[in-house]
Design goal:
Structural class: mainly beta
Number of strands: 7
Radius of gyration: 13 Å
Largest sheet: 4 strands, antiparallel
Distance between the termini: 19 Å
Number of domains: 1
Strand content: over 45%
Order of helices and strands: EEEEHEEE
Length: 78
């Protein structure tokens, strides 16, 4: 999957689902990147998204969403 992911919505019903987006506050940091894990899909046939946060310690992995219904919103430049 090419392109930068701006937001993901996780769950069966998007109205009641959890959303993560770049720039969202997370504790003392904020979401800095959302990445689709192509290696996991290739090796295990499982769709996985990794959410990273940026805090005073640098960029760290915060959440991993595996094998869940996900709506992906890409960052588009018009």
């Amino acid at each position: 999957m090419d392109g930068l992911i701006r937001k993901i919505i996780i769950g069966q019903n998007p109205k009641d689902a959890m959303a993560y987006y770049v720039g969202m506050k997370a504790g003392r940091g904020e979401v800095s990147a959302i990445v689709f894990d192509e290696d996991c899909l290739y090796h295990h046939s499982v769709k996985r998204y990794i959410v990273y946060i940026q805090n005073e310690g640098g960029q760290v992995m915060w959440k991993c969403i595996e094998d869940m219904p996900v709506v992906v919103e890409f960052d588009l430049n018009f």
